[in-house]
Each structure stands twice: as structure tokens, then as C-alpha cells.
Amino acid sequence: MSTLVLRGKLILAFTLVIVVITLCFAGYLLVQQERIASAALVTRATGITGVLAKLVTPAVERDDRRGVSSALAAVYGHADLRYVVVMKASGEVYERQSLDELAPGEELHDNSPQERVVQTRGGLLHVLVPLSSKGTRLGTLVAGFSRQSIDDAIRSSQVALLGGALVILFIGVGVAWLMSGNIARPIRAVAQRLTRLSRDLVDSARGQESAGMQQASGIEQTRRTMELVLASAQQIAENSSAVLGNAERTVAGNRDVALRIKELDNHAEKAAEILAAIMQVADRTDLLALNAALEGTKAGEAGRGFTLVAAEMRRLAESVMESVAGIRRLMNDMRTASQVAVQAGQEGIALSEETTRSARDIALVTQKQRRATEQVGQSMDDMAATVTEAMARTRQTAANAAELAAAALRLSTLVDSGRLTPTPVAVVEPAPLPAGATADGSSR
Amino acid sequence: MSPGAAPLPASLAAPPEAPRSAGARAAVPLMLVRVGGRWFALAAHRVEQVAAKGAVTRVPTAARHVLGVTGLRSGLVPVISLEEMIGTVGPPASDPVALPRLVVVRAGDCEIALVVDEIRGIIDDLPADIATTPSKAGAPCFMQQEFEWQGKVVFVLDVPQLVASAAGWNLGGV
């Protein structure tokens, strides 16, 4: 229905244009036709009057009224000729012929012109031709021609032009019908599609703006997290430095302990040498006591006391040897324990050195991490600025899309209503900027 | 006393020159020594001396039980390995205190030094009526008797037979 309204408006516009053009063209044709017909009438009238003057001049000179009448009779019946008057030089009407009765004063009786004069008066074309012969003024020939033929021709032309205008109008209306159909349908389709695209564009811009807001929020949160990571890296660096100092002190302490244990081992070796000497003395004492007991035994009853003393000495020597053996076992245990302690100390030194290296590595890695974190923070700031700028551009895009949607909706409404005057349409306002973003690209 | 038991052999009898009082004990003093896991008893009056085992010089072409000779106060004395003469003496007792000793015994004019792992000492309070039992068949001729003392089986070494066996002599009743 809306398409028909639009097409009707288009047809009306086309028809108005065609009518205006046709009227202008017809008016122009009529004016030109009247001008040409008037000129032709003047030419024809002057020609007829000139010929008639030449015919009647001899008769007037001879004062032959019949000759004048016959000459006038030659042109009598001409469609446009209404009257002919021949006047004497004295102003007397010498001969007169008229097709019908003219009103008084309709005929022009002027004997004054010295040369041919054409006048239009009273709806007639009057031609005045002086009659002379051999330099003598004989009189004046006055002929009146009617414009009836011109009016008839113009009337016929008007009828023809009206018919042609009607034909052109019908043809124009048909053509306008076809053209309006080819124009209105695409316009309406384009308007509807433009409306849909504009709404989609607005929705997309809003979604993009919402995503940008979320991205900005995420970047802000990431930036805060990176600040926490940076603080943690600094604390780790400080702790690693403390660990490094403790590890170095531990290395020094372990080395001192290893040195002390080595000194203790040397003392133990010297004690073992002393014990070996004691052991040797006790062994010899044991042998001496055993030999003494043997000799006492061989001496019989006389050597019995000697044997007992030797036996006591031998038990004493054996006791010493057992004690020395026990001390040796203890010394061996001590040496084993000291060796284990030395080995443990060396392992502790190795572990401490490894801890020192690890602490240094941790310190270096932490420094690198801190620098990397700072760079990441800078990148986060740059990214936040970029996202904020993108959001501003997106907001501008949303505003433009809203305006486009309003224009598309207005066009669609115009197409649907067929009204030429614009209709107020609700403009889709873009969403406001997020609380953490400003239009100048900075985030709060 | 177990069945088949006999009084102390003549090798353990007191020497004829030793004075004997009325209250004296009947048995002769014995020196108990250990070789490996076995205990042996020797008559104390057959023992000349005990010494630490020093350097032993090997003697070429000597028997396997002759480890060599060593210098003692009585001159060069052959060093004899009881383990080689007996065959096996069992696993040695774990006693890090004991040191190898040489027990010099004499039979007649001949002295030999026995390598022992431990010298228990001289026992002079052995009861006179302690019974000995013959060793198992196939035992060496110098180790024909044994007795039990403080839970240990002690083989009685006949020093003259031992010296004769070590030297490859037949000393008869020395």
C-alpha cells in the first residue's frame, strides 16, 4: 500500500512536470503560430493590395469607375479581405466594396499616407497604398483584411495541441507508472535494509563498546595484579639477598666445622699412636708376666708366690690391653663419626654453595622478573590507553550508527507514509562511557 | 668321669725332678693355648718361654707346617704351625685383644716354637682326678687325649711326640 502511495506521488510529480512542459511547449507553438500567421497575413495583404493598386491606378487615372469595379472584382471573395476602398486625392470615396456590412468607423478612410502603411485597428488589418501616376497623386487604396483565418488556424492548433497534450499526458502517466515502480521498490527495499543494517551496526557498536569496557576492566585488574607481582618480586629479591648472606655464612661455618673436625681427627690419630705404644707396652708386660709365671711354675713351691705376682701382673696387662682395645674401638667409632661428620660437612658446604648459587640465580631471576613486570605494567598502561581510545572511537561509531539508524528509519517512514515532510523519529542515543574511562583516552 | 676315662697321661705327669709336697696338687701345671677355635694344653715344664711373634724367615724346601725360623734368646728356633699339622682347627675366635704368640717347647735338645693365637695362662689347680678321654680315631699321635674344662674341650698335646712329628723324628719315650 505504501509503495502505491509513493508511486502515486511520483506519478503526480511526473504528470505535473509533463503538463508544465506541454503547456509551455503549446504556448510557445501558439505564439509562434500567431506571429508567423500575422506576418503571412501582412505579406499576403500587402501583396494583394499592391497588385490591386496597380490594377486600379490606370482606371482611376482615366476616371473609369467600371474599370475600378472590375479590378476590385478580381480580388472579391478573398477569404480574408473584408473591404476595399478607393479614394480620390480630394478624399472622396471613389469606389467601395465590402463583403459584409461593417460598423461605422470600422473602415479606415485615410488619404494622407505618402507611402504604404499597414495598421491594425478594430480587429482588422488595414493596408493603405497611395495611388499615383507619373508623379501625380491620384488617391489612396485602402484594403481591410480580417484575422479570422489566423484565429481559425490558432483554434485548430489549440485543439491539435490539446489532443497531443492529452496523448503525451497519457503516455507520460504510463511511463511514470513504470518508472515509479522501478524507483519506489528499490528505495523502499534499500531503506528497510539500511534500517536493519543501521540497527545491527548500533547493536554491534554497543556490543563492541561493552567488550571494550570489559577489556579495559580486565586490563586494569591485570595492571593491579602486575603491581602486586612487582611488589612480590621486590620482596623476593630482598629475601633472596638475605638467603644469600645466610648461605655464605653457612658455607663459612661449615668450612670452619670441617677444619675443626680435621684437627680433631689429627688429635685422634696421635691418641691412636699413643694407644699403640701403650698396647705394645702392655703386650710386652703380658709376655714378661707370662714368662715369669712360667719360671715360677718351674721353680715349684718356691716360686709359687712369684707365679701369683706374675699372674696378677698379667691380668693387669690384659686389663690394660682390653682397656686400650676398648679405647681403640671408641677411637675408631670417633674417627668413623668424624669422617661421617667431615663428609656431612663437605656435603653441607656443597649444599650451602649450591644454595648460594641458587640464591644468586634467584636474585638475578627476580631482577629480570621485576624488569619484565615493569615492562608488562608499561604495556598494560599502553594497552589501557589504546583500549580507551578504541572505546572512544567505538562510541563515536555507535553515535554515527545511531544517527544512520535514525536517518534510515526516517527514510523508511517516509517511504511507508509517502509524506514529503519529515517525520520526527526517535534517535538512538549511544551508551555512556564506562566509569573508569574518559573520552580523552585516559583511565581513572 | 665319662666311660672309658683314664687318668692323666704321662706327658702331663709332674717331672721327676720336681719336688712334691704332701699337700700338693696331684696334677702338673698346664699352659692352655688357643689355635683357631681349638684349645690345647701343654705341660708347663715343657715350655721354655713365650714370646711375641716377630719376623719369621721362611726356610726353602721345608715342610708346610714349618713356617720358618725366628731368632729368640736361645738362638734360631723353627716356627711350627699347629694348624698345618692338625689339619683344621675351626674358625678363629673373635678376640681383637689377643696377639699371635710363640710358645717355645723343648723335648730333649730340640726346641720348636708353636704359633698360637692366645695363651690362656698357666693352670695349676687342675684336679688330679680329672679324666681324659681318647681322641677320635685318625687324630695325630701327639693329640691322643682330651678333657673338658670350663665348658671347653681341651686337647692334650704330647710335646715330645709333637716335637718329633714336627721334626720328622721318632723320639720314643722322650
Quick structural gist:
The complex is a heterodimer of chains A (444) and B (174). Chain A is α+β, with helices and mostly antiparallel strands and 444 residues long. Chain A is built from 4 helices and 5 strands, in the order H-H-E-E-E-E-E-H-H.
SSE blueprint and pairings:
The complex is a heterodimer of chains A (444) and B (174).
Chain A: H1 2-62, H2 65-75, E1 81-88, E2 93-98, E3 117-121, E4 124-133, E5 136-146, H3 148-298, H4 304-417
Antiparallel strand pairs in A: 1-2, 1-5, 3-4, 4-5
Chain B: E1 30-35, E2 38-43, E3 47-52, E4 66-72, E5 75-80, H1 82-86, E6 101-107, E7 110-116, E8 118-123, E9 133-134, E10 145-149, E11 152-156, H2 159-167
Question: Can you describe what's shown?
Answer:
The complex is a heterodimer of chains A (444) and B (174). Chain A is of the alpha+beta class. Among the domains of chain A are: 2-146, 2-Layer Sandwich (Beta-Lactamase), CATH 3.30.450.20; 228-390, Methyl-accepting chemotaxis protein (Helix Hairpins), CATH 1.10.287. Helix content of chain A is 76%, strand content 9%. Chain A is built from four helices and five strands, in the order ααβββββαα. In chain A, strands 2-1-5-4-3 form a five-stranded antiparallel beta sheet, with helices on one face. In chain A, a hairpin with a 2-residue loop joins strand 4 (124-133) and strand 5. In chain A, helix 1 runs antiparallel to helix 2, helix 1 (2-62) packs antiparallel against helix 3 (148-298) and helix 3 runs antiparallel to helix 4. Residues 420-428 and 433-444 of chain A have low confidence and may be disordered. By secondary structure, chain B is mainly beta. Chain B has helices at 82-86, 159-167, and strands spanning 30-35, 38-43, 47-52, 66-72, 75-80, 101-107, 110-116, 118-123, 133-134, 145-149, 152-156. Chains A and B meet through helix 3 and helix 4 of A and strand 3 and strand 8 of B.
